Amino acid sequence: MIYLFYGSDVEKVRSKAFEWVAKARAKEPNLAYVRLAREELSASVLEDATLSGGLFIQRLLVLIDDPYPTLRVANDEEEGDEVGVSALDEYIDALAVSDNAIVLVAPKLGAIKVKKLAPKAKVEYKYDKPVSRMLERGFNSSLVNALGSRSPDKLWLEVQRALRAGDAPEMLHGLLHWKARDLLEKGSRAWGPRESRELSLQLIELLQSSRRGGLGLDIALEKFSLSI
Questions:
Q1: Half-sphere exposure of residue 59: CA atoms within 13 angstroms, side-chain side
Q2: Which CATH architecture has domain 1-128?
């Protein structure tokens, strides 16, 4: 079953999705949780997401984070985005009827995609900015700004503050990886195109290494923050 989070308020979409995940995990501790970034989506991974858990795990909780690449509208008279094709598209029907909980986080999802995905979702959560805020700068937290400005000391401090405040390491990683992709798509003075891509891949490897039993994700994020 799919729980769809989308809307123009990127920060709220993401924070509400991770809040939902935290509550679901607290309510059902036996859920096996995994967050999948766009770059990790493949036929085999998505097929696994549709299957029920094993002998001791009845269900899976899968958060699919920002699966659609952003494309600039060719001749837009006003600023806007379209979303491109994702490996996810072929598995929407299977995920919709799966017993597993599939949390689909898709900020700024285009109207065409919404029409296709919303009817498949068990519940949809839409968070739009008020019209008066639509032209304001987008997602702008101290954490992602520290990464964007390539300030290791500030990033380490913000990671520390967030962890002490009780934010889940998976949520922090999700925000940082979202920012890495944002840097790659929009460009940055502090990060060149090649460096932005390497940053995104580094964050994916960091998460996968943590899952394989390497450093805990919280410690890995602290170490990463000082390496940028």
A1: 15
A2: 3-Layer(aba) Sandwich (3.40)
